[in-house]
Amino acid sequence: MAAINTSSNDPLYLAYRSVGQSADLIVPAVALNLVSLVGIVFNGTVLVVTVKSSSLRGSANFLMALICLCELVHQIGNNFFLVVVISGTNFVSLLTAGLFLTPSIFAINCGLMAMLCSAVDRLLSVISPLKHMDILLQFKYVYLFSYLLICIIYGAYSLNYVLANAFENAGNPTTGRLSEPFRGPVGHKFFAGTIIISLCCTCCYVSIFVLIRRKNYVCQQTNTRLLRSLIIILSINIGGYLFNLTIYQFLQAFGHMFGSPIRILQFSNIACILLNAAAGSNAIVLYLNSTEYRRLFKKELKMCLERFHSKNDQRNI
Q1: How far apart are CA 266 and CA 272, in angstroms?
Q2: TM segments (predicted)?
Q3: What sign does the dihedral 114-120-122-124 (CA atoms) show?
Q4: How far apart are CA 33 and CA 31, in angstroms?
Q5: N or C: fewer beta carbons within 10 Å in the chain?
Q6: What is the pTM of this model?
């Protein structure tokens, strides 16, 4: 762990390095973590029903679970910001933040690639449904492991350049927010990668829509459901990352227009909250658009309520 460079001229560091616990920092951290907590529960629920249900063993289910797992780990990383500001230290070195946030940094990038893998998988299933099914029947684990390996490689690659930057600028003060290791040139690289992945996902889903529209045996109802799903996926999951990154790029260029550095942090925190709301929306999207997931969610909720009532009854005896 590296010590903070006390000679840093970072405006936020100069303003809050010696004030101890401050509502200016604690309130944004608490708000962010409350949203993250909801997302952790929702994404965890998707993982639970996927593991427990034998009906969710398809490639789409696997990749959806992988996305939820990555988002869950991503959102757990927001706790570090809360711990730092509640402790009253308010700042840690960039290297310390980078090392503590390593799982979340890896998960963010792994999750982005999982979104692309999911789009590619859906495209393949539409281009050649029988061939796709045949591959799953004969080489299911090899097929799924290939996607997992691609996600791991991309996550490791991205983590490498983020941590390399953290080591080069080890003493820079940070509040422990997950966005801070992505500052500067590293942020531009991450932004470019996210744009490319988002464009590829968009191309895949647009291609899916066009292909299905051309297939005469697909009914209009299916087209409507697909279009609705496309809008949800692009606007919430992928759009959340793009919106967040765009805000950060804007603040880096024009942040001085917002006055004090704490106002910049609070404004950027709104973007973080929206991103985490998007990251936690997977369960809601699945509940609204999938009969099978909806049935399993209700079943799991019913079981939890029965256990809760059973424990209460035992205590009252």
Answers
A1: 10
A2: 25-50, 62-86, 92-120, 141-163, 190-213, 225-247, 267-288
A3: negative
A4: 5
A5: C
A6: 0.89
